[in-house]
């Protein structure tokens, strides 16, 4: 749904843009026009292609009285109006175009795109069907057929997508320890010297199921409910304390256009370790997604939540405020994908005045980058790096300091598509955590293989 909301208008627009410069949409009129008028027309078309929609529309308005019976002027004028949300003006221009030539395929497809943006899916489908009855280049015909199939699915306001993941994970340091050969001192106990425990290898078996449901209100402006349910279970061969059962759900009222999407999520998450209740997180927030251009997108979010731990960890209950931003870009002939993001979390322990040694209050900064490149039509490689700093508020009595950690993580993965609905992934992750409280320092390597099925 998220991709469809943005891709469908762009798909049809690209179809019409290529078609509008062919012989199917010539610039002709029964009235004579000067070279100056022609220059204005080509300048308006150039402005339209460059995204200067207001300039283009103003020029088409100037040209229209001189060539009112020109199919090209009316269709292009409609496109410029539609790009600015001037739907009534676009409809008027397209009505004129179809009076001039009722079976013109580019005009019919443009009318279909207008009906799509107005959530009039039955009318949009009708216009595409009319266009398909006209002689069309094979590429344009294929795109129009794809568009018709997707428009027909949108006539159903409920959309459900399900993703199943099955996998195995190897962890060379499942207990996150510094190792038995490492020693550290406790200044709060007279600098007594202790050593770490041995690093323990383990295998985890993962089963995950994700449901994405969307309800489209069918209103002008793109209002819908975006709902999600995630279930994850991971069983470990050796360290059963790490056995994890996770469930989360969210409801997000959302408004979306071709350029942006704004949502207000309400969410809850529940975590069980070794099938005993461990943590519940619930809250709300704000998320914003902006399409800067077809190859660059900006995402940001704010999240406020309450963390409630099960007994005997209730003293760790905390309020959390998180904010983040991310820039995604496609570049190069193969559409290599680049991502850079920054996140900040401020967490306050609710009972810190009574439990000053429990490290539940902190400020955390995270910087993350990723490059993803297609090696072939079925194989994609990704490389990511994350740097994180965490500064805790409470002073620790045993270490006689305030804890401060850094984490450097390198992730590499391959994704192989078996078909349009399934894939295999292989991932390796290297973690290097360092802390001024040495027992909290550790190195680890994670290796995972997963099967992913979407249906």
From TrEMBL:
Alphabetical keyword list: Signal, TPR repeat
SUPFAM superfamilies, sorted: TPR-like (SSF48452)
Domain Surface lipoprotein assembly modifier C-terminal per the UniProt entry, residue ranges: 216-414
Organism domain of life: Bacteria
Signal peptide: 1-20
TPR repeat extents: 71-104
Keyword Ribonucleoprotein: no
InterPro entries the record matches: Slam_C, TPR-like_helical_dom_sf, TPR_rpt
Protein known as: Surface lipoprotein assembly modifier C-terminal domain-containing protein
Species of the source: Nitrincola tibetensis
């Amino acid at each position: 749904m998220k991709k469809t909301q943005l891709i469908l208008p762009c798909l049809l627009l690209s179809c019409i843009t290529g078609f509008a410069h062919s012989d199917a949409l010539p610039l002709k009129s029964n009235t004579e026009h000067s070279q100056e008028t022609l220059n204005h027309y080509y300048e308006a078309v150039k402005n339209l292609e460059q995204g200067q929609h207001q300039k283009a529309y103003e020029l088409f308005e100037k040209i229209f009285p001189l060539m009112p019976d020109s199919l090209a002027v009316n269709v292009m004028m409609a496109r410029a109006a539609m790009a600015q949300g001037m739907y009534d003006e676009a409809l008027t221009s397209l009505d004129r175009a179809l009076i001039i030539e009722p079976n013109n395929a580019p005009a019919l497809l443009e009318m279909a795109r207008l009906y799509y943006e107005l959530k009039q899916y039955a009318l949009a489908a009708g216009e595409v069907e009319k266009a398909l009855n006209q002689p069309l280049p094979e590429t344009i015909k294929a795109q129009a057929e794809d568009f018709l199939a997707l428009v027909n699915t949108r006539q159903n306001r409920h959309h459900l997508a399900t993703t199943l993941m099955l996998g195995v994970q190897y962890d060379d340091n499942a207990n996150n320890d510094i190792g038995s050969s490492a020693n550290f001192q406790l200044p709060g106990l007279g600098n007594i010297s202790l050593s770490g425990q041995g690093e323990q290898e383990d295998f985890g078996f993962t089963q995950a199921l994700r449901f994405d449901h969307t309800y489209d209100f069918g209103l002008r402006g793109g209002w819908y409910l975006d709902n999600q349910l995630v279930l994850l279970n991971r069983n470990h061969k050796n360290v059963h304390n790490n056995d994890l059962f996770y469930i989360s759900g969210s409801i997000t009222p959302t408004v979306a256009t071709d350029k942006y999407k704004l949502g207000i999520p309400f969410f809850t998450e529940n975590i069980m370790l070794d099938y005993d209740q461990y943590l519940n997180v619930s809250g709300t927030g704000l998320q914003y997604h902006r399409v800067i251009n077809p190859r660059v997108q900006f995402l940001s979010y704010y999240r406020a939540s309450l963390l409630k731990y099960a007994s005997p960890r209730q003293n760790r209950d905390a309020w959390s405020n998180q904010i983040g931003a991310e820039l995604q870009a496609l570049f190069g002939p193969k559409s290599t994908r680049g991502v850079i993001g920054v996140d900040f979390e401020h967490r306050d322990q609710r009972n810190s005045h009574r439990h000053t040694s429990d490290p539940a209050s902190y400020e955390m900064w995270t910087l993350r980058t990723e490059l993803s490149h297609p090696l072939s039509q079925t194989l994609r490689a990704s490389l990511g790096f994350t740097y994180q700093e965490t500064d805790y508020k409470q002073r620790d009595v045993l270490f006689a300091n305030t804890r401060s950690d850094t984490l450097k993580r390198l992730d590499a993965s391959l994704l192989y598509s078996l078909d349009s609905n399934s894939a295999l992934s292989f991932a390796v992750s290297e973690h290097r955590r360092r802390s001024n409280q040495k027992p909290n320092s550790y190195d680890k390597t994670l290796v995972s293989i997963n099967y992913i099925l979407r249906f």
